[in-house]
# Entry
Amino acid sequence: MPLPSLAVFRHRAFTRFWLGRVMAVLAMEMQTTAIGWQVYDAARADGKSVAEAALILGFMGLAQFGPLLLLSLVGGRAADRYDRKSILLLCYLAKAAIAIGLALSAGLTGDALIMVILAASLGAGALRAFMPAANTALLPTLVPREDLPRAVAWGALGFQGGIVVGPALGGLLYALGPVTPYASAAALFLVSLGLLTITETPKRDVLPPAQGASMIFEGLKFVWSNKLVLGAISLDLVVGFFAGAIALLPVFARDILYAGPAELGILRSAMGAGACVVALVIAVAPIRRNVGRWMFASTVVFGLATLAFGVSQSLWLSVGALAIAGGADIVSVFIRQTLIQMATPDAMRGRVGAVSMLCISASNELGDFEAGLVARFVGPMAAVVFGAGAAIAASAAWWRLFPSLA
# Structure
């Protein structure tokens, strides 16, 4: 297979932006892996059952979604109204501060530890209301339009690369104690801050004065009226909400596969590894025909692979199922993000990106809560199987509801 074109990296601003984002993803994945194991292990050591500890993991997802729900559209307006680079700089700085706080609190145990991590999750949720919208809106301004599909593909490749390396590294560093992955994450966030600081971004056109509420509703109206954008965003919402199994990985690692934090890192890396391979293929040969069929087929494969993970009791079978799920998911991500970027004018990208991020987080963090809640009553394996079946059914329904997208 030929190497993917590196031509997009001739744009120095994109290169620095891309590297900084990869470092930030590495940091977030290391931190998330450490949090998941530390919280679940502390809950089990405190005498809580598997189902009760799984529910606590679900509440961590809910804690991130709450502030995101309240602030996401505000973050989208900010990305269209204010300097996107400045927004990202402030977010990287705040992320580093949260990681340092977690490192300083790593010696706590029991409910005290859970409360500190819950507070950190609330802070992370608030930052996610601003970061993705600014990231999504800034990227297309760093490359010419003809380079955008490859920029999106390389962005996905870098993101998935961070998802591969970050969890595995976080799991390994956890063997040295929880302080190590948290301190390492803080250092990487500061590297991202430095790279973005020296990135030259284009000047923005001055927008006419507008009330915050009117700008937000204008963005919502655009998404609702554009069925292509609405279908792409909502498809990710329903599939990810039901089929998400990431929150329960500490449960599977510790009490179903009888493994440790290093194996948890491998499980978390598996989806990113599969996605990274497929993203590399897409970077070489972007999908340009029958994209709707490719997208819907990928969501079905994602559901089937999640179903296989839910019934597996073998570590390497679980790793393989998650890798297939990650590969299928990146196909859908690439198609959705490229369609949304091309169908949205620059002045609306921040608000549309915020709506997209709100739906993605609803599918991820709120999906984590759904998984933890269902696991509390029917067990973790049944919860994953139920969610996978619901995701496959949702894909079939969206095929009928959005024929233009299909």
